[in-house]
């Protein structure tokens, strides 16, 4: 199994390409790798202070990130900006 | 002169952000502190004109800052300039740096600090009743904001305080092993902005007194909306 760092690199690449499916898969593998490395933890949730006008929720359990990236274009774009720093 | 400290608290992100303000900033400042259901337009309207600093944590957008259950607190073109005149303003919220912060400055605020994109972080939802205890996740992003606010309350200028926040993100990102937390730190750092007079400062407040430095507030047991 690849390390979480390697999977994170693949996730970044997929986001840059705009490939939703590959990004979702890579993020799932990233979480699995983290768990295998013993770095998975209690109940981490990705949160934001955006108003509800957006099409994504304000609190996203990490395991829901891959699904939301595929279903919600605005969330995919947010993750792309967060992870790749591309505007 | 009072401090307006607006802490929305109705879902996980507002609970986490306001929890840190409640733990580290609220004991240091005199009223008016607006928490939970008090973070609405009318209490804000009454309190803001008398204060020299406005600190807010809540959801937002490019032109709006909201309080409890997203009640609008400040919206471009829809507030009295007296509410913001000569004040140092910090909005821990999403995207207010795009339109709202420049508008606050145009209407007389000494300066306004916010973010030009979403403010994102990872929090531990198991610690929702004691959010300030979440040092592993939320603390990495939110403690630099607390350090910035403490610098302002020490009498430092807005520019100096913002630099403290930015340095905090950089320092935490450098040693962070969790790639997602690190990405959030770098993202928030790149979106933090200051509009208006960077040399603006407020009257220094006394340091947090000893009992409050050691004793956290009681757990927050009010219900919140879950993800």
Question: How would you describe this structure in keywords?
Answer:
heterodimer; A: 87 residues; mainly alpha; two-stranded antiparallel ribbon; 2 strands; 57% helix; B: 227 residues; alpha/beta; Rossmann fold; six-stranded mixed sheet; two-stranded antiparallel sheet; 7 helices; 9 strands; 18% strand
Folded structure, characterized:
The complex is a heterodimer of chains A (87) and B (227). Chain A is mostly helical and 87 residues long. Chain A has one domain (4-80). Chain A is 57% helix and 9% strand. Chain A is built from four helices and two strands; from the N terminus they run ααββαα. Chain A has a two-stranded antiparallel ribbon with strand order 1-2. In chain A, α1 packs antiparallel against α2 and α3 (65-71) packs across α4. The termini of chain A are far apart. The model of chain A has no long low-confidence stretch (mean pLDDT 90). Chain B has seven helices and nine strands, in the order βαβαββββαββαααβα. In chain B, β4 (64-66) and β5 form a beta hairpin. In chain B, the strands form two sheets. In chain B, strands 2-1-3-6-7-9 form a six-stranded mixed beta sheet, with helices on both faces. Chain B has a two-stranded antiparallel ribbon with strand order 4-5. Chain B has a single domain, classed as Rossmann fold. Chain B has helices at 12-24, 41-47, 100-106, 138-153, 158-175, 179-191, 210-214, and strands at residues 3-7, 33-35, 53-57, 64-66, 72-75, 88-92, 111-115, 120-124, 192-196. The model of chain B has no long low-confidence stretch (mean pLDDT 93). Chain B starts with a strand and ends in a 13-residue tail after the last helix. In chain B, α5 (158-175) packs antiparallel against α6 (179-191). Helix content of chain B is 35%, strand content 18%. By secondary structure, chain B is an alpha/beta fold. The longest helix of chain B has 18 residues, at 158-175. Classes of the chains: A mainly alpha (87), B alpha/beta (227). At the A-B interface, α1, β1, β2 and α4 of A face α1, β8 and α6 of B. β1 (44-48) of chain A pairs antiparallel with β8 of chain B.
């Amino acid at each position: 199994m690849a390390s979480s760092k390697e999977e994170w690199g693949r996730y970044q690449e997929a986001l840059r390409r705009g490939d939703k499916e590959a990004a979702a898969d890579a993020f799932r593998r990233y979480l699995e790798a983290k768990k295998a490395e013993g770095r998975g933890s209690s109940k981490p949730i990705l949160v934001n202070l955006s108003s509800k006008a957006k099409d994504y929720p304000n609190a996203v359990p990490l395991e829901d990130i891959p699904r939301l990236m595929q279903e919600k274009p605005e969330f995919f774009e947010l993750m792309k900006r967060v992870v790749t720093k591309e505007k | 002169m009072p401090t307006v400290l607006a802490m929305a608290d109705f879902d996980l992100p507002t609970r986490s952000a306001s929890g840190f303000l409640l733990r580290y900033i609220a004991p240091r400042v005199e009223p008016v502190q607006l928490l939970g259901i008090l973070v609405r337009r009318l209490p804000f309207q009454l309190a803001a004109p008398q204060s020299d600093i406005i600190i807010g944590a809540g959801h937002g957008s490019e032109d709006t800052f909201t309080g409890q259950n997203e009640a609008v607190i400040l919206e471009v073109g829809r507030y009295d300039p007296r509410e913001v005149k000569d004040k140092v303003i910090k909005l821990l919220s999403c995207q207010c740096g795009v339109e709202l912060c420049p508008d606050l400055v145009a209407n007389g605020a000494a300066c306004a600090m916010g973010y030009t994109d979403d403010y994102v972080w990872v929090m531990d939802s198991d610690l929702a009743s004691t959010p300030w205890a979440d040092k592993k996740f939320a603390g990495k992003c939110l403690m630099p904001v607390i350090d910035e606010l403490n610098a302002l309350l020490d009498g430092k200028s807005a520019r100096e305080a913002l630099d403290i926040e930015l340095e905090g993100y950089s320092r935490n990102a450098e040693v962070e092993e969790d790639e997602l937390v690190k990405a959030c730190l770098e993202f928030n750092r790149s979106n933090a902005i200051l509009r208006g007079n960077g040399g603006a400062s407020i009257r220094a407040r006394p340091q947090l007194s000893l009992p409050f430095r050691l004793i956290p507030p009681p757990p927050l047991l009010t219900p919140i909306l879950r993800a």
